[in-house]
Amino acid sequence: xxxxxxxxxxxxxxxxxxxxxxxxxxxxxxxxxxxxxxxxxxxxxxxxxxxxxxxxxxxxxxxxxxxxxxxxxxxxxxxxxxxxxxxxxxxxxxxxxxxxxxxxxxxxxxxxxxxxxxxxxxxxxx
Length: 126
Known about the structure:
This protein has strands spanning about 5, 10, 20-25, 35-40, 45-50, 60, 70-75, 80-85, 90-100, 115, 120-125.
């Protein structure tokens, strides 16, 4: 069983920063891919970033590339999403997720992930 818990969301002004955390409780994260997704009201869930556990390779949506950084702390099984230069269009509920079986070409799809956190709200507004 895998459990995930996000934290760190909140209200921030445009241009500001937030760091989201995702604490993962799992027997093993070997060969896993950790992902961050977001969902705005009335929209489908969209890929934000992903990190391959083995090798540490990272992947980003074009809309956040250069502004967001995904990272991990292997000692605590925590995945972070550092969000800088936030824009109002970044407003959404952010979810972290884990997959053990995704083919790398599918990691941008929510359907590739088996375990999800409850989400944390990020609101970018003046």
